[in-house]
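Page 42, continued from yesterday. The earlier attempt failed because a stray header line got pasted into the input along with the sequence. Redoing it now with the clean sequence only.
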Amino acid sequence: MIKINLDTEAAVLREQKAGASLLLSGTMYSARDAAHKRMQILLHEGKDLPVLLKDKVIYYMGPTPTKPGRAIGSCGPTSSYRMDGFLEMTLQNGVAATIGKGTRDANVTKLAKQYHAPYLLAVGGAGAYLAQCVVSSKITAFEDLGAEAVRELVIKDFPVIVGIDKNGDSAFF
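This time it went through. Structure tokens are written below.
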């Protein structure tokens, strides 16, 4: 497992090969369909995004309610294909990588190569375990979206696998 601090080494993500196992620590953001749609509208209107995405990682997930004493509820990945139409927008705004589950369309491979931004895989069905890797969670945008609000997550040893690397090579068969 390769350990990467997202706050100081986000560029190292770009060098990892398809199939590599990583442990991520540092700060990332969560965002799902509704949040991506809101970001798209803001950009279309010429407005700034509510969070700076440059060199950040976006995790496609929406958590379950948080239990007392925890930073977040279960936070497993959501199916990434639902964000395929928004990927170029986020990459144009500097996103270093995305995390989700499942395969992506052919355009995602093209964009991974164009922007040198890998697609990382979190294990579906492991949301309770992944929640233990979240040190803190706070809503930073679109609070009215509930579970789909944008959250800033501070993580420690969050396990992922490189699904599609910057060369377009894939861990999928």
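Notes: The chain has a mean pLDDT of 95.
Reminder to self: strip header lines before submitting.
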